[in-house]
Amino acid sequence: MSTGRARGVVNGMGGWEHRVPRRLVVAGAGMMLFGRPRPAGATEVWLQQALLREVNAFRASQRRRPLGLDARLSQAATAHSLDMLQWSRMTHAGSDGSDPGARISRAGYRWRSYRENVGAGYMGVPEVMHGWIASPGHRDNMLADDVTQVGVGYAGAPGMMPGNMPRLFWTLVLAAPR
C-alpha cells in the first residue's frame, strides 16, 4: 500500500471497519477543505475542472494529448466516490459488485476502453495527483493513449477514518467512446 503526502491511501483495497453516517456531505466538505468560499453546487464543478487541468498538465509534460471532461463519466465517478464513502472502503469494485465498465455503462457511456484511479484521504487536487503520479499503475492510467475523455468524482463527510485520515474519496474515470 502506498501513501501520499496527505496520508491518502492509493493502492490496495483498504477495508476500514467502521461505517460512515448516511448523511453524506459532498459540496460542503469540498468548500470546507479548500478554504475558499464557493457557492453551493459550484464545488463539484470546480473540483472536476481543477483535476482535469492537473491531469492534462501532467499529460502535456509527458507529450500526451489532453483529455476532455465528460458528464456521464463524471456521473459514474461521483456515484462510485459516494459508494466508497458510504462503506468507508476504497476499492475498484462497487458495493453491488460492479466494475468500472459496468458503472460507466449504467451512466449511458458506450465505451471502447476505460481505466479508473481511486484514492482516499487526500485533502485536495494537488495531493491526490501527487499520490496517483507516485503510483506506477495510476500514473500509467493517466498517461494512457487509449483514452480521450475523463470523469471526476469526489465525496467527503465530516470526521476521520481509522489511521486519522479524512473521509474523502476520489475517483478518476478515463475512457474512450465506441
Automatic annotation (TrEMBL):
Residue ranges occupied by any SCP domain in the UniProt entry: 52-158
Residues spanning the membrane: none
UniProt-listed InterPro entries: CAP_dom (IPR014044), CAP_sf (IPR035940)
PANTHER family (UniProt xref): SCP DOMAIN-CONTAINING PROTEIN
Protein name: CAP domain-containing protein
UniProt organism field: Neoroseomonas marina
Lineage: Bacteria, Pseudomonadati, Pseudomonadota, Alphaproteobacteria, Acetobacterales
